[in-house]
Amino acid sequence: MHLYKYVSNPNFILNDGYIRATQLSALNDPFEATYSKKALKKLTKEFNCELDDKELLKYIEENKHKVCVISFTEAKDDLLMWAHYANEHKGALIGFSFYTGYTVFFKKLFRFTETALDKPFDYYDGKCHAIIYRKQQMYKIDMFDRDYSNISVEGEDRLLFEIFLQKSDEWIYEKEHRIILKLSQADKVILDDFDKYKDIKFIDNMLNNDISENPKIEFESCKKENGDKCTKLHIFLEDIESEEDRSVWGNSLANLAKNNPEILYLFKIDSSSICSLTYGIKSSKEIRNNEYLYPKQTGYFERYNTRLNKKNYTLKFQKIEE
Question: What is the tally of structural domains in the chain?
Fold first, then answer.
């Protein structure tokens, strides 16, 4: 199966091999990860286990900002999505290969099993799931059509995970699929403005090597939207050999996500998962002329031009022979 991602600029993915997983505070739907607390409390009473509804709700509310999603779509020809997510057709569409039974998507997905969010049943395994579209919020009707017979083993992580898998049917045109992960699994984190975070203790520790194994750090000079100078902090968690140390840094950085939608949490993807690039009708020369060497490591990478179908409101795609 091929799934697609609309992007304003494909450089992050096709030059560097990183894809962003978006934290809750940065998602564009204000109903993301919302659910009926009243219905969940009622549903909890039907569980054949000792999950306490108050503790369950507390767990979800405290941890939902530490979860992130990577979104894909089945639709490569949706005019609204080209306009909204591909910078008004100036961007591009990246195609990814997903295969039933196994997925080669991440270069090496970090899965440390002794953090607060990890339970015996691990949902954050990098698999892709189709979004469910409904008119009602989560849990209002789920006692009738979801199987919770194994909830005593799956625990509260099952519920934390699945609140990210349902959206209003107003979004059904997006035909969305998601990989749901923990922010603490990220391979690289980019802090948008060092001045905002320099007084945080663990950031100071990181810069002063106060823990046994620190991540590699790079500084990038940049400008804010108002023109003021700032410095971005690139933190490479993927280079840490110790799982324990990486987990410490990953969880600390995940705690910053709630009120900071500008922070980027990036995951390194396997080059073999990238199969195509489709240029928007208005794609810039910079996008069109870039070689994009990362996906070419696999030897299978196709490019397409997009054209308007003058007979109706649709797009046409033409393979570029190289």
Answer: 2
Chain centroid to Cα 184, Å, comes to 12
Banded pLDDT at 50 (limits 50, 70, 90):
confident
- Over the chain, what is the mean pLDDT? 90
- Give me the pLDDT at residue 143, please: 66
pTM, entire model: 0.92
Domain that includes residue 21, residue range:
2-185+270-319
pLDDT digit string (tens) for 8-26? 999 989 999 999 999 999 9
The neighbouring-strand residues paired with 223 are: 229
95 with 205, same domain: the answer is: no
Residue 246 and residue 206 in contact, taking contact as beta carbons nearer than 8 Å: no
The residue type at 183 = L
Shared domain for 157 and 222, answered yes or no, is no
Rounded Cα distance, 283 and 87, in Å: 9
296's CB contacts (< 8 A; 6+ apart) are: 271
- Beta-carbon contacts of residue 54 (< 8 Å; ≥ 6 apart): none
Distances in Å between the Cα of 311 and the Cα atoms of 82, 222, 316 are: 19, 45, 11
Give me the residue label for tokens 């049943």: 121
- Based on the domain organization, do 257 and 143 belong to the same domain? no
- Residue 259 and residue 77 in contact, taking contact as beta carbons nearer than 8 Å: no
Structure tokens belonging to residue 248 = 């410490």
Residues 224, 292: one domain? no
